Give the backbone structure.
Amino acid sequence: PIVLEKLTILQLGRWYQEGVNTLSQNKDGGLAFFKIESSHSEAVIETLSSGIELDRIKPVMEMYCRALAGAEVKLSPTDALVEKNIGWVSNESPTTEGSTVFVPTLVDRYGTKEENYAWFKVVSTHQVAHLEFGSFIFEFERPSGLFENLRLDLEARRIETLRENQNNGPAFGEDVADSDSPGNELSESHTGLERAWLTDMQRFFDLFEDRKLSLDIFTVVEDGRLDARVKNEYPGIKSSYTQVQSDSHENRPD
């Protein structure tokens, strides 16, 4: 099963044949080969496999990301992000959280190592671009430079509404509001109005009536800005970047 996770049936046949050859020359070596307890067996699997494992390229990719960002950047598997319950992500999707870039533990989307390595490099570049080109420098209380500054007023109204809903509560015999209601949102952390904001961006998106829609729109626009900036600033990665974008579009559900 371990071998089949990394090799196709055709590649498995070649690995098996190499094991038979090793077994014919050295019984103990052959047994170790098929148990994947020998460095030779692991080397053959690595050579035959088209997939790229994060553990094998992590030091190089972290150095690459630090060079782009000009700051300390760590790479972690996406399952660590899921365990931390940060955002809506799957184990196969790249994303970022502050100074940590989260990528899949294994990429085997293409038929060659070169293409899969290029995918790793492209998605890492995109995530680091959030740091390099200012996605996280937003300050909620800094006045807007292009539009009428309504953030603090809207937040004050929202907090007042939440306070009123919390103080009033459901009357006797009425159904208790569901968990998505504003009143419950205020009290869910048991700290009332002192509930801390995770980031200034979260504080901003909480102002919208449809928070998810506003976040989705912002994400699309911001990712588009970053993609254009990356391809302009780093022409050497433009070809691979465009290819990954195209493939991502084709795999998108209707």
